[in-house]
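Working notes for the structural subgroup meeting. M.R. asked for a predicted model of this chain before we commit to crystallization trials. I am recording the input and output together here so anyone reviewing the notebook later can reproduce the run.

Input as submitted:
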Amino acid sequence: MQRVTYQGYFGDKRIESRGSSLHQRLFSSGTRSIQGLSINRAEQKAYYRFLHNDRASEEKLIEELIGRCSSQVKGKVVLAIQDTTEVNLTTHKGRLQSHTGLGGIDDSKGIGFKLHPSLVVDAQTCFPLGFSSIRMWGREFDMDTKAARKYLPIEQKESYKWLQASDQSKTALNEAAAIVIIQDREGDILEQFIRIPDERTHLLIRSRLNRLTNDVEGKLWDTLSASAKLGTYQVKLDSDSHGNLPAREATIEVRCIKTSIRRKGKGISAELYAVEALEVGCVGYQGVHWRLLTTWPVTDFDQARLVIEWYTWRWFIEELFRMLKKEGFNIEGSELETGWSIRKLTVMLLDTIMKLMQMHIAYNEAEEANVPDSDILFTKEEQRCIDALNEVNEGKTKALKNPFKAGKLNYAVWVISRLGGWKGYTSQRKPGMTTMFKGINKFYDVFDGWTLQKDVGTR
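Returned structure, recorded in token form:
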């Protein structure tokens, strides 16, 4: 049975049904092309109408997505991972309608829009729960110079996006036991440390500046590096082609201090913990060296390790952007002709990619973990088809049997990954999101035939 995702949001059952159908088709087809995912011309027109309908607004799409996330966080400690990317539509400049939600981007001659989401994951299980904030905007083409903007109030700067998203996350996640907001160096803004934290809301941000502190010992980084070592640990790190870093077993030294940061010449300051993760023994390359600022209490080695691990989960949002653009749905190649419709499609694709992330994490959970049931992503009939495909894809030996419990999400993901080209051997590298992305597309091709066969067989 088709889920009506947007029920009650647009004030029109036909629009809601059309949006729910498009929502499901984005997931099942593996494409952002409306022409490519539509079964016929009538359906194609219906989806175009939905994306151009003012009643199915960007704000309502975001509200629905955030609402689903809010309903899942009660009593949990959650991480809200923020970052910014841009959707570059410059190659379609001649086709896109002007004044439709687009603006300048980092390329001074380009057009597109900025995207700043907050992706929420369970701090204990790493399982993605949804989004607590999504903001999109086009820059004004005649923005003041960077030097002129430096002296503006924070509310008038583009960097205010970090504080806005943090405030919105606090509201959306108000039933969570605790929130840890994670940001990269661009979020290292003193005003944020002063305004955002409270008894249940914490910040975890990579330090951008060797800031002044209220300590007599000196600046932040110098004091932190001179502090006593809490301990060391080993971790396997993958290779990084961009930084020419090899795959390796890294030794990480950990330090932590309780301190405060302040602005020169002003009495405003914020208390926090600074944690250092320093890779030692590097030869021929620059290893990991993170200085993390957090309001989450860190008083020993285990707590320091925890916040370092949480920070590594920023991988989620980088993967989100990768799948949204070139290596996944290629939103920058959209055939839509208005910025507003592309922005709405972007919101729906973020939701689709989150489902792929849920599949990826569910598969990588330990067998004894509390893995969700398949019905969070698949209907009863789809699960029956998955069961049938499991029988076909399992081998005769134990090594090629589905190791997971039927009805669980990791059981379904094993089958989907086999369809995506994964061989199924435990000695083989675990399937990645790209494999699952391919597998979903193939699964729904099979499911369409499965459904047709059943319908014909009952006539």
